[in-house]
Amino acid sequence: MIPKGKRKTMRILAIESSCDESAAAVLDADRGLLAHELFSQIDLHRIYGGVVPELASRDHVQRLLPLVEAALARARTSAADIDGIAYTAGPGLIGALLCGAALARSLAYAWGVPSIGVHHLEGHLLAPLLEPDPPPFPHLALLVSGGHTMLIEARAIGAYTLLGETRDDAAGEAFDKSAKLLGLPYPGGPELAKLAVTGRAGQYDFPRPMVDRPGLEFSFSGLKTKVLHAVRAFPDAQDAAQLQRARADVAYELQEAVVDTLLIKALRALEQTGRDALVVAGGVGANLRLRERLNAEAARRGLRVYYPRLEFCTDNAAMIAVAGLARLQAGERDGPAIAARARWPLDTLRPLAAG
Ligand code: KG4
Ligand code: ZN
Q1: Are 230 and 248 in contact (CB under 8 A)?
Q2: Which of 7, 205, 249, 351 could form a disulfide with 158 if both were Cys (CB 3.0 to 4.6 A apart)?
Q3: Which of 191, 279, 284 to mutate to test the pocket of ligand 1 (most atoms within 8 A of CB)?
Q4: Whose alpha carbon is nearest atom 26 of ligand 1?
Q5: 270 found inside a domain
Q6: In this structure, which residue's CA is closest to atom 7 in ligand 1?
Q7: Quick check: CB of 285 below 6 Å from ligand 1?
Q8: Residue nearest to atom 16 of ligand 1 (CA)
Q9: Residue 170 falls within a domain, yes or no?
Q10: Within a domain: 242
Q11: Number of domains, the chain
Q12: What residues make up the domain containing 263?
């Protein structure tokens, strides 16, 4: 253990519990990410076909403290070496958020260190800062998760302008709901992407919603209706091979439609803002077809695209640590009350630098 006074660098613990992942991480300002631990509740929610909020909270309460202990042990860090605690304060499931907030605030109180509630989406946006080649500011960000689809101009940490978002379903929801219609297990996004690999092009004609209109808004709810119609017209279930081919063809076309739409709007936003760096964050950022198409287009146009490593596209505590460390280093602190917010607009955050 190093006496706190002798150590100049800041080392923090971070906790994530906004939905169905419980996670803890330790991040050191000089030495980088020292540990990150995660428990996914997927198996708990699978039989219900989606996240059950009450079950999520009950599980977070049980998982979080052992994850904190595991992260500290892996980081070879004792409580006395922790200078601050960050946790996800919103947006998300309120009961789930309160589990992480209450634990983080209690530990901070017991250890005599400051705490900071972090915006979950700021965590997603800053996840690529953990990579060896981090994105420069200003940049454009495409945030594509299970709950959000947004194009954001990020001028500095905390200085975000929302340029466009979805009017209905998020990109991840389009994957998940289509996957459900195709009979794939929850969570459907990665499963649908797997099935799409064996699908054939040109078997279905799905639209690229709103691309022929000006602007940077998205709408994905119509695509699941297309999938529903396609599923209803599937061949007789007795011909198993033919049915499997049809399912793969629908998965292929759904993925192409979502990826095309994201690509067209992201390129339009880059053109409109004059930016040449794009950050892709959130769970759908793990989609390999999206990465392949974006990388090819970026190479053609001389643009740079930045992604978090695959495991940090979906929810994790490492990204919460990045955002929390930046804010704690800037002197931000929680107020006296424990506050978690189910809704929290991203553009109400305090910028850490003029931008
Ligand atoms: O960021 P995230 O973990 O949670 C939210 O904050 O929403 O994103 C989860 C979403 C889910 O909709 C999931 O199906 C989707 O990301 N997802 C994917 C892939 N991996 C995760 N969608 C398409 N392809 C993938 N490989
Ligand atoms: Zn998330």
Answers
A1: no
A2: 351
A3: 284
A4: 287
A5: yes
A6: 146
A7: no
A8: 283
A9: yes
A10: yes
A11: 2
A12: 137-307
Count of C-beta atoms within a 10 Å radius of residue 243: 15
Mention every residue, 6+ apart, whose C-beta is less than 8 A from residue 199.
248, 249, 250, 251, 252, 253
- Check whether residue 143 and residue 288 sit in a common domain: yes
Angle among Cα 343, 348, 353 to the nearest 5 degrees reads 140
**Domain of residue 274, CATH code:** 3.30.420.40
Ligand nearest to C-alpha 192: 1
C-beta of residue 247 within 8 angstroms of C-beta of residue 182 = yes
Contact 172 CB / ligand 1 (< 6 Å): yes
Atom of ligand 1 nearest to the CA of 21: 3
Q: Do 203 and 271 share a domain, yes or no?
A: yes
Nearest CA to ligand 1 atom 10: 146
Tokens of 345: 């607009």
Q: pLDDT by residue for the chain (355 residues), tens digit each?
A: 555 555 679 999 999 999 999 999 999 999 999 999 999 999 999 999 889 999 999 999 999 999 999 999 999 999 999 999 999 999 999 999 999 999 999 999 999 999 999 999 999 999 999 999 999 999 999 999 999 999 999 999 999 999 999 999 999 999 999 999 999 998 899 999 999 999 999 999 999 999 998 999 999 999 999 999 999 999 877 788 999 999 999 999 999 999 999 999 999 999 999 999 999 999 999 999 999 999 999 999 999 999 999 999 999 999 999 999 999 999 999 998 888 999 999 999 999 976 6
Measured CA to CA, the distance from residue 20 to residue 318 in angstroms comes to 16
**What string of DSSP letters covers 65-83?**
HHHHHHHHHHTT--GGG--
Q: How far is the CA of 285 from the centre of ligand 1 (A)?
A: 8
Tell whether 44 and 69 lie within a shared domain.
yes
Question: Which residue's CA lies nearest to atom 14 of ligand 1?
Answer: 189
Which ligand 1 atom is the nearest neighbour of the CA of 315? Answer: 3
Query: Which of ligand 1's atoms lies nearest the C-alpha of 173?
Result: 12
Query: Does the residue 1 lie in any domain?
Result: no
Cα Rg of the chain (Å, integer)? 21
Whole-prediction pTM value? 0.95
